[in-house]
Amino acid sequence: MNQQTIDMLTEMKMTAMAAEFANQIQDASFNLLGFEERLSMLVTAEWNRRQNNKVTRLMRNAEFGIPSAVMEEIEYHEDRKLDKAQLLRLAACNYIDEGHHVVLEQIKQFIVLPFNQYRNTSFAHCNRILLLSTHL
């Protein structure tokens, strides 16, 4: 019966849920948890997989030149006239929690790339203006 359930979850494209269920079946310590806790773990695993796939798809579709860029690798040379404090404030993502949008004008893509690691963020190119938009 358990294998049948795993097969049905896989057929419904709930692969993370199926994998988590298989893990729960094999590990006896999960028997100590209640139904709601185990179900919550199954749903969370599937939700996380879908969110990760969504972010991966959005990053691939954005065609970033360096999708693995991170804030720590930005070089703040004087001739670049970058405000490190401002970029670090943006990296904290408080604007997302406040429901704001950020418009970066005439800025190179390598400055925006490190922001691609943050939640529910999408990028749209508008000529030479780059719009960083958040979805709450």
User: Could you state the order of secondary-structure elements as H and E?
Assistant: HHHHHEHEE
- Largest β sheet strand count, sense and barrel closure: 3 strands, antiparallel
Total strand segments: 3
Main β-sheet, spatial strand arrangement:
1-3-2
Q: Round the mean pLDDT to the nearest integer and report it.
A: 77
Terminal-residue CA separation: 40 Å
The fraction of residues assigned to DSSP E strands is: 5-15%
Helix content: 40-55%
Structural class: mainly alpha
Given as residue ranges, the uncertain stretches (5+ residues, pLDDT < 50) are 123-136
Shape: elongated
Rg (C-alpha, Å):
20 Å
Please count the helical segments: 6
Put the structure in a nutshell:
The protein is mainly alpha-helical. The chain contains 6 helices and 3 strands; from the N terminus they run αααααβαββ.
Detailed description of the structure:
The protein has helices at residues 2-11, 15-26, 35-62, 84-91, 94-97, 109-112, and strands at 102-105, 121-126, 129-134. The protein is mostly helical and 136 residues long. The chain has a three-stranded antiparallel sheet with strand order 1-3-2. Helix 1 (2-11) packs antiparallel against helix 2 and helix 2 (15-26) packs antiparallel against helix 3. The model is unreliable at 123-136 (pLDDT under 50).
